[in-house]
Amino acid sequence: MNISVVIPLYNEVESIGELSQWISRVMQENDFSYEIIIVDDGSRDGSWEKVLQLSGENLAIKAIRFQRNYGKSAALSQGFRFAKGDVVITMDSDLQDSPDEIPALFHKIANENFDVVSGWKKKRHDPFIKRRTSKFFNWATRKVSGIKLHDFNCGLKAYKNEVVKSIEVYGEMHRYIPVMAKWAGFTKIGELVVKHYPRKYGQTKFGIERFVNGFLDLLSISFVSRFGKRPMHFFGLWGTFLFVIGFAIAAFLAYEKIFNAVYKMTDRPLFYLGLVAMIVGAQLFLAGFLGELISRNSITKNDYIIADTKGLNSDNT
Predict the structure, then answer these.
(1) What mean pLDDT do residues 73-88 have?
(2) Are residues 161 and 264 both part of a single domain?
(3) How far apart are CA 253 and CA 274, in angstroms?
C-alpha cells in the first residue's frame, strides 16, 4: 500500500465528509493505493455516525473511536499503530489542510528518501494570537532541537512507516514528532510549503493553555530523549558540581576560622550558601542514583531501534 492518511477528528461533523471525498479524489487521480484512518477523539456532535456512513460508502476508510476526548497525540498514536502504508500522512480534519499536497509529500518521502517532511504554512489563516504564539514556539523548538523547520505544529506531515512505528506519541507530543524522529535516528527531515485555508466550519480548538502545555512538553521531551536511559549523567553531573562548590566554600570558611579567627563561620552568609549547595548537590546525586536504578529495572531498558540485520534469525535469544 502506498499511503496511509491518519486524521484525528474532534467535533468536525460538517467537514469530515468533504475532506474524505477530497482525499479519495486526489488518490484516484494519482493512482495511489491508500487507506484513510479516522480517529474520533470522543466527538459529541455526530461525527462518529458520519464516519460510519462514510466507511460504508468507501472501503478505504477505517475508523477508531475513543470513549472520551484524550487529545490529538493519543489519536495520532492509535492511527500510527494501525497504519500500513509505506508513507504515512497526517492532516487535520477542519479542511484547513489541503489533500492536494499529498502527491508532493509522497514524492519527497518515496523518491527523495526523506524520513519526515513537515508542511510549512507560510501564509496562515489563523487568529493573530495563534500566529504570534506559534512563531515564538517554533523559534524555541528550533533552538532546542537543532531542526531547521519553520512550522513544527503544522498538522500536514509525511513520514516513512518505520518512523511512526519507532516513536511513542503521548501527552501533547504531536508537535514534536520531528524532534522525536531525529533522536530516534531518523535525521533526514525536510519541509514543504503548503497551502493553508481559512476555517470553513466550526471554531478553532486553540487555547492559550495549549501553548503553555506545549512549552512544558518541549522541556520534557528534550530531557527524556537525552537522559531517559542515563539519568545519572544529568543529575549526577550537576549534583557533584554543586556539592564540590559547597564543600570548597565550607573548606575556605574553616580555613579562615582556624588560621585567622576573624569571624564565626555561622555569622557569614557564605556559610549558608555553601551548606545549601552541598545539600542540593547531594539530593541531585541521590535523584540520579534512584533514576538509574529505575531505568536499569525498566522493561524497556533494552528497547533499541534496529535499522537492518543480515544473517540473523529473529527467533534467536
Answers:
(1) 94
(2) no
(3) 10
